[in-house]
Specification:
The structure holds two protein chains of two kinds. By secondary structure, chain A is of the alpha/beta class. Chain A has four domains: 2-165, no CATH class; 180-273, Helix Hairpins (Orthogonal Bundle), CATH 1.10.287; 288-410, NAD(P)-binding Rossmann-like Domain (Rossmann fold, 3-Layer(aba) Sandwich); 422-513, Alpha-Beta Plaits (2-Layer Sandwich). Chain A has 23 helices and ten strands. The longest helix of chain A is centred in the middle third of the chain and has 47 residues, at 240-286. Chain B has two domains: 5-121, Rossmann fold; 152-230, Alpha-Beta Plaits (2-Layer Sandwich), CATH 3.30.70. Chain B has helices at residues 13-22, 62-65, 80-93, 106-115, 123-136, 138-148, 177-181, 201-204, 220-230; strands at residues 5-9, 28-33, 50-52, 71-75, 98-103, 119-122, 154-160, 184-189, 195-197, 213-219. The chains are: A alpha/beta, B alpha/beta. The interface between A and B is large, with 64 and 71 residues.
């Protein structure tokens, strides 16, 4: 009966949308570094930690008023306690363990055993509780029991909590952790030297009345101060034998010191690329909108150069040499394979919200097909443009889900045609395309703000700004109206196609949007 | 357009695209390929005759096949060093030949210009420009595309001012092009072949005279009427 009730409750909790939503919210807030409110939460917790430490320091020699002490001992502690319990809750799913066991037993035709999932729940929760971070969290709550004066020192554990919220500290610890074995070897070596030299100096000096070393503690203290190369000089050996020991410790100290330094430097050098990559991934995740170029070739370089003027551009390239070249050229190039789903997962790119368009610009049609198929396998809507190198592969790229194909040879054919038929017109179009002499062709969207100033095409005063109004693209009719009549009604969403000097176009745009222009 | 023959040097995918697009403009199109080892491209294009050439050739024999003064040469070898060499040797032999050359990048484009090409098409830059325009100015690109590919009734044309004294002595700013003639003038090409945007200050102060060329956009009917009105049309 009880077992049935537990399993039913587990199912109902596990399928509850509200429960899942709440748990997800707290998980994001506590653990998901991509979650936008996590940063605010982290800052709040860091502020609490600093407030707590300031109160502790102030309390040493001055009187701290009762409200502040209450805030420190109760309010902060209770907040930390709630945080601790929430972390314990989101660390694993109790209902999932129960359901999995009940389904496993049902599959084997056995009766549901309650003890097994309970053991598993205790195991996973205990595993979390004994983790270093959880222990620090727990000790940070201890100052709540402020009556125990000794326990006040546990406020310092609140400082250790900073590890949770400051990413650079996490990076540092991860770098040090990577050299765990080397540091352990160093620690063992240093311990042996300290132990041997402490005993030796004690034996040599303790019976000498002029020697400041009388106890074993003083001998250990002297050894540590000497081996660390600090050497206060408050305790010094006076016997010859003692000084020989000192020389041995000093030489060992140099070895320990240089070994430690080189270890830290090597650890950082080895991890530097990884740290940079993590930073890059974070930067990518924070970007709002960008163009994603897949493959770094000459054409990618030119496209990226032009797009970067007004947009953010990210390039994915699997060939390391090309990545290095791209970086030298000043672009944001990442060494990831654009044809692998894993790359997008690792980079945490949200195609739907972050990517304006994907440009497959590799010189290999095979790679472009592969990239387009990869993207289409998890996103149906994003706009994909691809270059086509071999006409035979046109249908393959279309089948892979490419929205727009660009065949360079066809373009050259069209240019040749224009050149053959109308060389002067060709020059004019070429000049327009390449902003030659500062003349450009641009599109201006008609917004409600523009409409408040102008209702008809004849009111636009483009001639005053030395601008040619080539026509209006009517969004509602999806049609281009060349040389519109003065009475043509403007509508929101329409586009004006204008030609003129870039500077004049800028002024004309401002004029259109200026309030009360009319 | 006085040129009646086209010479295409290079036998690759560009060849078929260029040939397809220019065939209506030239009476004769001669295709040359560098050596016989190149595998043929589309079978449908094998219909035309392909001559063999060598970079060490003395080009004087070309004069026996075509009238060089009425020729346009397209140098489209994919190896840029060979293309530059070819352009240079053609220019060395024929001072007045119009040479259109393909360049893979800006560096090759500069070298081709130095080698004497009349017009260089930098493929990478042009491709990048069009791709960026497609993304950043989709409407502009679509309209230009329709005009260039003649998918709409809109056309771009160049019209030469003839003997007619209709515009004689007038300034471009005096004329209501779009209202009176239903066309839009983009630029004016002077006798010395320098192009000026119609609203540039230089063009505004230029008195229209015989021999000037207008680059206009408009519907076919309006363009024809305009041509008739101002004299001799080029297209």
């Amino acid at each position: 009966m009880l077992k049935r009730l537990i399993v039913n409750t587990a199912y109902s909790i596990n399928t509850s949308k509200k429960y899942a939503k709440n748990k997800q919210f707290f998980y994001n807030l506590l653990e998901n570094s991509d979650y936008k409110y996590k940063r605010i939460f982290d800052f709040f917790m860091i502020a609490l930690i600093f407030a707590s430490v300031i109160i502790l320091v102030r309390e040493v020699k001055s009187h701290v008023n009762d409200e502040l002490l209450f805030f420190n001992n109760y309010v902060i502690s209770i907040i930390f306690l709630i945080e601790y319990l929430l972390r314990l809750w989101v660390s694993s799913s109790v209902t999932k363990i129960i359901i999995e066991q009940s389904e496993y037993d049902a599959m084997l035709g056995k009766e549901f055993e309650l003890l097994k999932p309970l053991k598993e729940i205790l195991r996973v929760k205990f595993k979390y509780i004994i983790s270093v971070k959880a222990i620090i969290d727990l000790l940070a709550i201890v100052p709540f029991f402020h009556q125990l004066r000794l326990l006040r020192i546990f406020v310092l554990f609140r400082v250790f909590k900073l590890f949770r919220y400051a990413k650079s500290i996490q990076t540092f610890t991860s770098v040090i952790a990577a050299k765990k074995f080397e540091f352990l070897t160093l620690a063992i070596f240093a311990s042996i030297v300290i132990f041997v030299s402490s005993v030796l100096i004690y034996v040599m000096e303790a019976n000498n009345p002029t020697s400041p070393i009388d106890t074993l503690f003083e001998a250990v203290y002297w050894s540590i101060v000497t081996i660390s190369t600090v050497g206060y000089g408050d305790i010094t050996p006076v016997t010859e034998a003692g000084r020989v020991v000192a020389m041995f410790v000093i030489v060992a100290g140099i070895a320990v010191f240089s070994f430690t330094t080189s270890l830290i430097v090597t650890a950082f050098t080895e991890k530097l690329d990884e740290i940079k990559d993590i930073k890059l991934i974070d930067d990518v995740a924070k970007m709002k909108e960008f163009y994603l170029i897949c493959g770094y070739e000459n054409v990618s370089k030119e496209v990226a150069k032009k797009l970067s003027i007004n947009n953010k551009v990210i390039i994915l390239e699997k060939n390391l040499a090309k990545v290095e070249q791209g970086k030298k050229d000043g672009f944001f190039v990442l060494n990831y394979d654009p044809g692998s789903i894993e790359s997008y997962k690792k980079l945490r790119i949200n195609i739907k919200t972050q990517v304006k368009a994907i440009l497959c610009l590799s010189y290999s049609d095979v790679e472009n097909v592969y990239t387009a198929l990869t993207v289409r396998s998890f996103n149906k809507d994003v706009y994909i443009l691809s270059i086509l190198k071999n006409k035979m592969n046109k249908n393959k790229l279309i089948s892979a889900g490419v929205n727009e194909l660009f065949y360079e040879k066809e373009l050259v054919g069209i240019i040749a045609k224009e050149f053959a038929g109308q060389p002067v017109a060709f020059e004019a179009i070429h000049a327009l395309r390449s902003n030659y002499n500062g003349i450009d062709m641009q599109e201006v969207v008609i917004t409600q703000r523009v409409l408040n100033n102008f209702a008809m095409a004849g009111e636009l005063q483009n001639a005053k700004y030395k601008i040619v109004l080539l026509g209006i693209y009517k969004k509602s009719k999806k049609r281009f109206f060349f040389n519109p009549l003065d009475g043509t009604i403007l509508e929101a969403g329409d586009y004006l196609l204008i030609i003129g000097n870039i500077q004049f176009i800028k002024e004309f745009r401002n004029f259109l949007h200026k309030k009360g222009t009319k | 357009m006085t040129q009646t023959s086209a010479l295409i040097f290079g036998y690759n995918e560009y060849t078929s695209e260029i040939k397809k697009n220019i065939s209506s403009h030239y009476k004769n199109i001669h295709v040359f390929k560098l050596d016989e080892n190149i595998t043929p491209i589309d079978k449908e294009d094998e219909s035309y005759e392909v001559s063999i050439f060598d970079l060490s050739d003395n080009w004087n024999h070309l004069s026996d096949i075509v009238d060089i003064e009425e020729c346009v040469a397209f140098c489209i070898l994919e190896d840029m060093a060979e293309n530059i060499f070819l352009t240079l040797s053609l220019r060395d032999t024929f001072k007045d030949l119009i040479i259109v050359a393909l360049a893979a990048d800006k560096e090759s484009a500069d070298k081709l210009t130095l080698a004497g090409a009349s017009r260089v098409i930098p493929t990478t830059q042009t491709t990048a420009n069009v791709i960026v325009d497609m993304l950043e100015k989709p409407i502009v690109t679509e309209v230009l595309h329709d005009i260039l590919y003649e998918k709409s009734n809109l056309k771009i044309a160049q019209i030469k001012v003839g003997e007619n004294d209709y515009f004689e002595g007038k300034y471009p700013s005096d004329i209501e092009w779009s209202r009176q003639h239903g066309i839009i003038v983009l630029s004016i090409v002077h006798e010395d072949m320098s192009t000026e945007f119609v609203y540039s200050s230089k063009a505004q102060h230029h008195v229209i005279k015989k021999g000037d060329i207008f680059v206009v956009v408009g519907y076919e009917l309006e363009i024809k009427e305009f041509e008739k009105m101002i004299g001799s049309g080029c297209e």
